Amino acid sequence: IYVHESGKKGTEWFLLTTVTVKSEKEIEKLVQCYAHRWKIERFHFILKSGCKIEKNQARDYGRLSFLTLLYSVIAMQILNLTYLGKICPEISSGIVFVEEEWKVLCCCARKSKEIPESYSLKEAIYDLGVLGGTKGAPSDGMP
After folding, report:
1. How far apart are CA 65 and CA 134, in angstroms?
2. Max Cα separation, the chain?
3. How far apart, in whole angstroms, are the C-alpha atoms of residue 95 and residue 89?
4. pLDDT, tens digit, for every residue of 29-54?
5. What is the pLDDT of residue 60?
6. What's the CA angle centered on 102, arms 84 and 46, to 5 degrees?
7. Residue 126 CB neighbours (<10 A)
8. pLDDT for residue 139
9. Is 75 exposed, middle or buried (0-12, 13-18, 19+ CB in 10 A)?
10. Do residues 39 and 23 touch, judged by C-beta distance below 8 A?
C-alpha cells in the first residue's frame, strides 16, 4: 500500500502487510493503525528502560505476570503524562496529580521543604525525571 502523508514533510512510504484488505475504508483503517506504531514502541521503551522490567528476578509465572501488569499500568501512565506534557506543558500539575502528590514530588525531587504556589505539568515531569535518574544537563532536553 502506497501512503502519502500530508504535513510538514509530506512523508511517503509503503506499507507491506499480510492483512487482506477489500476496500478503501479497510486500507485507511490499516494505515491509521500502523501510523500509531510509534506509541507502542514508546510504551515498550518505557517498560524496558524506565521500569527496567527485564532486570526483574521473578521466576514464578504468576509473579512475573502480576509484575508485568503492574509495570504496564505504570508505563501507560508515564506515556500519557509525556504526551500531555508535550501538548500543554504549562497547565497545572493538579490536572494529573492530587495536591498531596505534587507537593511530595516537588519536595522530594528538589530536596526542599519549600512548596511553590503553582507547579506546572512541565515542572512535575522534569522532577519525575530527576527522581528517575535524569542528569538534567541542558543538552538532555525534557525527560
Report:
1. 28
2. 62
3. 11
4. 998 888 888 889 999 998 988 888 88
5. 86
6. 45
7. 17
8. 78
9. buried
10. no
> Quick one: cell of 34?
500502523
Give a three-class secondary structure readout of the chain: CEEECCCCCCCEEECCCCCCCCCHHHHHHHHHHHHCHHHHHHHHHHHHHHCCHHHCCCCCHHHHHHHHHHHHHHHHHHHHHHHHHHHCCCCEHHHCCCHHHHHHHHHHHHCCCCCCCCCEHHHHHHHHHHHCCCCCCHHHCCC
- Please give the model's pTM, rounded to 2 decimal places: 0.71
Residue 43 vs residue 59, higher pLDDT: 43
With 70 as the cut, is the pLDDT of residue 8 above it? no
Please compute Rg for the chain using Cα positions.
Answer: 20
Phi and psi (nearest 5°) for 104? Answer: -65, -45
* Residues 62-107 pLDDT 10s: 988 999 999 999 999 999 998 999 999 999 999 999 999 999 999 9
The answer to whether 128 and 109 have CB atoms below 8 angstroms apart is: yes
Which residues are 92's β-sheet partners? 120
pLDDT at res. 121: 95
